[in-house]
Amino acid sequence: MERAIPYDTASLETSRQGAAPQRARGQAKLVVRRRDAQSVISDLAMSGSAKLLFPRRSTSSLDAVMLNTAGGITGGDRFSYSATVEDCASVTLTTQAAERIYRASPGAPGHVRNHLEVADGATLHWLPQETILFDASALDRELSVTLAPGGRLLACECLIFGRK
After folding, report:
1. In 12-162, beta strands by DSSP E
2. How many CB atoms lie within 10 A of CB 44?
3. Which residues partner with 35 through β-bridges?
4. HSE (CB half, 13 Å, CA atoms) of 103?
5. How far apart, in whole angstroms, are the C-alpha atoms of residue 126 and residue 117?
6. Using an 8 Å Cβ cutoff, are 128 and 98 in contact?
7. Residue in 135, 126, 119 with CA at minimum distance from that of residue 157
8. How far apart are CA 77 and CA 55, in angstroms?
9. 101 versus 163: which is more confidently predicted?
10. pLDDT tens digits for range 68-83
C-alpha cells in the first residue's frame, strides 16, 4: 500500500507570493491594399495573444476577425491592433466574440491601443462586438484614427456591464 504524501500548502502559498502574475501581451498589424477588383492583405504581423483571422467571402472587401487567445483582459495586460487601408481598398474589422474585461488590482488597468488609418477612397468598418465590463475591472483603451479627406469610416464600440 502506498503512503500518501502530505500536500504542503504553506510552501505553495509562499512561492505564489514571490512570483509576478502572468500578463497577456499581443500586437497585430494589418495593411490592406486594392489588387484588381479585390481588397487583399498587403502586410500582416501578429505576436503574442493577438491574432487576426480572415474568413473567406465572395465580396471585393476583406473581412478580418480580431482574436485574443488569452480569453479576456485583466489588469496589466497590453494589446495593440493597427489597421491601414490603402487607396480604394475596403476592410471590415470585428471580433470573434464579446471582449471581457476582468477584475484588476487597483492602479493596474488593462491597456488596449487601436490605431486605424484610412486613405483617400478607402473604406474601413470598425465593428467589434460589445465589451463586457465585470465588477472591479479597469481598462485604459485608446482608439486613434487617421482619416484622409476622401476616406470612409464606420466605427461602433459598445460597452455593457457584466456580473457584479
Report:
1. 25-35, 38-48, 50-53, 62-68, 78-85, 90-95, 99-101, 110-118, 123-126, 131-133, 139-147, 152-155, 159-161
2. 13
3. 38
4. 4
5. 11
6. no
7. 126
8. 27
9. 101
10. 999 899 999 999 999 9
